[in-house]
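#struct-help
A.M.: can someone run this one for me? Single chain, 405 residues.
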Amino acid sequence: MQNAALASSALLSQAVQDDTELCKASCRIAMVLEEQFIAAGWPAGELFGSEETLSQRFNVGTRIIDEAVRVLAMRGVARLRRTSSNLMVLEVTSPEADQVLDVLSGYAYLVGVNDEHRREAIAFLEAVRRRLLLNSPPSRPSPAVEFLSHFFSDQLVAGAQPKGLMKERFHKFRAGQIANRILERYFGPTFEPGRREGSDADLFLIYRADRSITRQAIRLLESGGLVTTLPGRGNGIFTKRPPSAPVSRLLCCYFASSAVPIAAAFDEFRAASIEAISLAAQKACADDVREFERTFAANWACGRAAQLTDIFSTEDCQFGAVRNPLIELCLRTLRGYVALTVADGGGNISIAMANCFVDYTRRVLDAMVRHEPGAAAQAHEHKLIAMRELEGRNNPALARVLYAS
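D.P.: on it. Structure tokens below:
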């Protein structure tokens, strides 16, 4: 995208595995604003500029700003507020826990989470808790893990549709009502990923609404990764299975609004990644190992400058062997929250750090080949300790944020 103001955090996008098709300007603006709210410590009640100011800042028309604001309002993170001088200004709000849980339920339903996924995710987070308690000194409280554990244990029913709180929020405005009509098919027996819903013009005729309203409806669905729009003759709006990235981003917003400390989230991610590597070594098949070997060779080729995004890509290959959408959502969310709040875009990493990562990751790979979960977890844990020591020497300012006691 040419407009630099619309570029969201590349490192966060890598951390949560953003769908590259999510590229409409209004969706990008919503993402950028959410990231800024998180980086600012979630200043609920603060005003972030008028429609005109936002239009000038992002160099787009007010129609696109209106679409972005609809997306933010739907996610519960911001709204337009009329000031005493009759000016419409964007105000930061805090997403409500019940609606975040409703989004999680919808995601679990649409990606086909089953009872085995749920049981495994509950056991996984319990193992993460135990690992955090065994740390010396003991780790900080784990608010993010507790929230996700509450959802898996007490709220999630495999195969059950969400309660409909987000649909109620949609129903309050015309664009949301149109989006709801399309969403109804997602939660019925006729849902098919890749089905054409029509073009922008088709929706205009079907729902007898102004083009600006139908476009808002499409953007609401695009922001959740529920549809993709393909330009050109014969193309249009197509349904899709939702990716985890929009849900991870909303969880990051919720954690930020709940003042989850960066250091606590980092502890949680470290513990979760160790448990995930253990599971991956237990479950990995030959295809998983081959894919891991290919990615590892490509990311860490001799003479190539390594970046933090190469670490993410390598981790995702390992985590993918777990084959559990709930566990992968946990890992990407925790990683994204830490990445956005402490990083500046993910530049090159030092040679020493790269060599450390490569050396220990080879040990993890060897353990995965042998299906030795304990050895894989131990190699991964030793890698984290070694990288922590390097970070403490080479980047003490970042280390103080991540490893503060």
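A.M.: thanks! The mean pLDDT is 87.
D.P.: also worth noting: The chain has 19 helices and six strands.
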